[in-house]
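Q: Hi! First time doing this. I have a protein sequence and I read that you can turn it into a structure. Is that right? Here it is:
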Amino acid sequence: MKNIPELVCPAGNLPALKTAVDNGADTVYMGLKDATNARNFPGLNFDQKSIIEGIRYAHDRGRQVLMAINTYAQAGQVERWRCAIDTAAAQTASLQGEAARAEEELARLNESAAQGGLQQALATKLEREQALAAQRSRYDDLTQRLRASDERRMQLERELEPLRQRITELQLKEQAARLGAEQYTQLLADAGADLAAVAQSIEESGVRLHGLQGEIDRLHRSIAALGAVNLAALQELAAARERKQFLDAQSHDLTEAMNTLEDAIRKIDQETRELLGHTFHTVNEHFGRMFPELFGGGQARLVMTGDEILDAGVQVMAQPPGKKNQTIHLLSGGEKALTAIALVFAIFQLNPAPFCLLDEVDAPLDDANTERYARLVTAMSGQGTQFLFISHNKIAMEMAEQLIGVTMQEQGVSRIVAVDMESAIRMAQ
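A: Yes, that's right. Below is the predicted 3D structure, encoded as structure tokens:
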């Protein structure tokens, strides 16, 4: 058999000794509190009381205890060292005496006594097991009876639940009937009714209580549907009537104002139609007259593109000499320019202004058209309108009474040159 080494642990104090024994130490050794180099540290090593307690704790658990004297004899302290040796020896002798007494006590416990105690213990065990079995049987019987009682109780509870609900319902009906009777009695008393006469009338008329109750319930529902009585309803009604009268008056005023405005709008639309129609026809006549003067023939007119004159557009129809009648968009650039000049002068004839400014209107025109344009401007200037025109065309310049030119004899320097045509003609003659 393999030898297992023993575990030897030091014990600095009693708690440490117990911990070592409880955790499997085979042997512990302790030091004396007054025979150690660490005697000045509180809580370390053992005094007389802790030595006895520690040794008994270890021996009760089959562990060995060793005494350690962790010091040596020094000068002046020999007596303390000897005392430590004596203490260790005394503890050893005391332990040996206790061991001898334990062996004697063990010897007195012979085998027969042990056998007798074992038989007595077995008999006691058997008796207690029988008593335990009887108690268990009784417990099982009581448990079964208790379970049956619980099931019966639950069944009775289920049977009683509808009865409880019925009782509660009847109690509520009885309470409602009592309150209703008290309410009706109070109402009859407040109304000063003769209860005897009412009872006699009900009996003579053969009124059925169930039908009467139904009618009462219907009346109650009708009253509940009406809601709470608004005590301020009359005041609110008066205020609402006053408000309605005010709003009716405002509505009447607004209606009259709308009618007035609609009449005014109709009159304005009528006058606008008449004025616009007259203006359109006048401009169309002037345009039809000036177009042949500028083109040397042909014809032109303005056409409304809608039935409603206020919403309709205006389309220019022009027919130069030798061409078909077509819109202004299909003409050449020069024809468009002459047509536009004719239209502008036609509008200008409607309400002539004292001044008229023309900025290079003749630029896209050839010489023949320029001559007709110049004659037309000359003719219109005799009607009280002064024309100011900008042109680079010599033919257009010939119709002017005064010429104002801009020259640049030096680079970046412009000069104005004015020429009076009448004076120039006289000088030339």
